[in-house]
Amino acid sequence: MKPIKKTDRKKAWAKRQLTTKRERRERKIRNLFRIYCEGENTEPEYFKSFPVNTETEVFAIGLGRSRTALVEKVIELLEADNFLKGQTDYDEDRELWCVFDFDIRGEEGEREDFNNAISLAHHHDLKVAYSNDAFELWLVLHYQYQESALTRHEYYKILTKQFGINYEKYGKTKEFAQSLYLLLLPNQEEGIQNAMRLHDTQRDKIYCDQNPCTTVYELVEALNECIKK
């Protein structure tokens, strides 16, 4: 972010900006997560539910875009805030994440789009929590190791049985998403270990062929480093 000129400091927009900086200094924010998600409810509400300490701030938002379109929008937003590497407000300790799925539909170019999205994010030093095929794989891994590729609808059926609700109908709501953290917490370590094990079996493949696979556990581990003690 560009320094505010002395002649501009009395302007309303400048006062707001200076106030925000002052509040952050007073709160001693050391860990800032910016998490940009494909989904508008499940992922952002889940990540915002992590009980982080007062030195950590989690900003998670769903942009309603997927793959490359999502990453391009994230780059645009971060560039406007001067948060990208090489810009004036870049901070190598800031956690910048893109969260999206493959969402296989059999459409032309979707494999290349998924690969390109991950590569583009990494090129701009953004971290990626990707899932192939769907974010729900991460949820399923809390309860079972899943080494065979399933469709998202098959994951929905597993979760419907596990949670005792119609997951496809109610699992995507904001209210249910806000309950996910506590719901999954007793099995979170199992989920991390299963996801890590699964990822290790897929690392040598190109991204679109890593199915099933999810790297959401990496973001979860990063958030866990900032949990209230």
Structure, explained:
This protein has helices at residues 12-27, 42-48, 67-80, 110-123, 136-140, 152-163, 167-170, 174-184, 188-202, 216-224, and strands spanning 31-37, 56-62, 95-101, 127-132, 213-214. It has one domain (29-224). The chain has 229 residues and is an alpha/beta fold. A five-stranded mixed β-sheet has the order 2-1-3-4-5, with helices on both faces. 47% of the residues lie in helices and 13% in strands.
Task: Give a quick precis of the structure.
The chain has 229 residues and is α/β, with parallel strands linked by helices.
- How much of the sequence lies in strands comes to 5-15%
Average pLDDT reading: 90
Low-confidence stretches: none
Radius of gyration equals: 19 Å
Tally of structural domains: 1
Q: Termini, distance in Å? A: 33 Å
Count of extended strands = 5
How would you spell out the order of helices and strands? HEHEHEHEHHHHHEH
In the sheet with the most strands, the strands line up as 2-1-3-4-5
Helical fraction equals: 40-55%
Q: Largest beta sheet, briefly?
A: 5 strands, mixed
Principal-axes geometry comes out as: globular
Structural class: alpha/beta
Count the helices. How many?
A: 10
